[in-house]
Amino acid sequence: MKTAGQQTFCITGGCGYVGYRLACSLHKKGAKIILFDTIPPNQELPEDIVFIQGDIRDYAHVEKAITGADCVLHLASYGMSGREQLNPPLIEAVNVQGTQNVLKACIELGVSRLVYTSTFNVVFGGQVIENGDESLPYLPLHLHPDHYSRTKSLAEMAVLNANGTALKDGSDVLRTCALRPAGIYGPGEQRHLPRIVSYIEKGIFRFVYGDPCSLVEFVHVDNLVSAHELAAEALTSEKEHRSAGQAYFISDGRPVNNFEFFRPLVEGLGYPFPKLRLPISLIYFFAFLTEMVHHLIGPLYNFQPLLTRTEVYKTGVTHYFSMTKAKVELGYEPQEYNLDEVVQWFRSRGHGKKSHGSSLSRLLRDVLFVSALVAVAFSFLPLVGS
User: Which domains does the chain have, with CATH numbers?
Assistant: First the structure.
């Protein structure tokens, strides 16, 4: 068995936030890295990291990227948040067909290890889960409120079912595992945090919703990077293939109210934290209407929804999971982080409140905004007696 420094890792989605951070970490340990993505990284790569541009939906591209790899870290996906969630054909093609291409290439090319980056959502669809574990069944596919979660479930099932499949060259079998991370954060994260900061700066973040005691989880990017490295190592013979065929929930291990988690970011950028709390049912209904409008006019104007139904559930309904299995089988020990680095990252790029309006004007804007929200929601309700 090759040592860590002698191994070659192919990272699909390798130019994304987590993929690039993972590549740098493995590279520092001496590993050879192949990054596979549709676009080049926006940061300079060390000369000995190989970048292969391609589309995971094209098997020939996947085959080229994976050739020579000892382990594949499959992070590529589509449709996680915002308007991306409202493009079912592309979500299906990337998450399901793309994963099938990765599995086929591993088997054809004799790659014996595959770590798949999944999601909490394979078991969660809006129901309360407190300290859940990996014995929970998959959420029935028809109950997923979004295509991303449904396709990630299908892909995870395919990956874990492929565990033990004989490689074509007869040298070994394919060993697979899946990581189910919580919401990812860290300095430079580009998918969720800029959208949140945009809402804060535009004055849209005027209210919170749901039970103030509801708890969700997050995972710092460096904890997630560590989990990937440990999972890949646990697929080796030296670790008795202990992670083969297994799924693991991965988070910081500190359940917290979603809005309280982001309080340091809001206040760190100089904005007041909202005091108004709305019922989650109203926000969910508003998100549903927004999705319907996007379905009608999206082909002409692909606007960014304020929230989708899935995002309402993920932020407003309690769901958190035990890290026991990951700790025992992978040796995963999440380090403690906060949002200080994130606040500094945004401030260093010119974000932060420049001027302060009066409290009265802010109150008036809040009232007008919520009134408009309620008016839109109620305009879609049937009239009494009609």
Answer: 4-183+217-252+319-335 (3.40.50.720)
d(CA 337, CA 331): 19
Q: Rounded to two decimals, what is the model's pTM? A: 0.89
Residue 360, pLDDT > 60, answer: no
Measure the CA angle with vertex 252, ends 161 and 227; round to 5°.
Answer: 45
Q: pLDDT tens for residues 90-148?
A: 999 999 999 999 999 999 999 999 999 999 999 999 999 999 999 999 999 999 988 99
What is the three-class DSSP state of 157? helix
Give every CB contact of residue 40 below 8 A, 6+ residues apart in sequence.
15, 51, 53
Distances (CA, A) of 60 to 55, 102, 104: 9, 10, 11
Which pair of structure tokens corresponds to residue 103? 């599995």
> What integer best gives the mean pLDDT of the chain?
90
Is the Cβ–Cβ distance between 7 and 32 less than 8 Å?
yes
- In a 3-state reduction of DSSP, which class is residue 230? helix
Catalytic positions: 148
CA 67, 78, 176: angle at the middle one, nearest 5? 45
Length of the chain: 386
Structural tokens at position 144? 């997923």
User: Which among 76, 73, 74, 69 is positioned nearest to 50, based on CA atoms?
Assistant: 69
Round to whole Å and give the CA distance between 313 and 309. 6
| Cα–Cα distance, 352 to 92 (Å, whole number) | 38
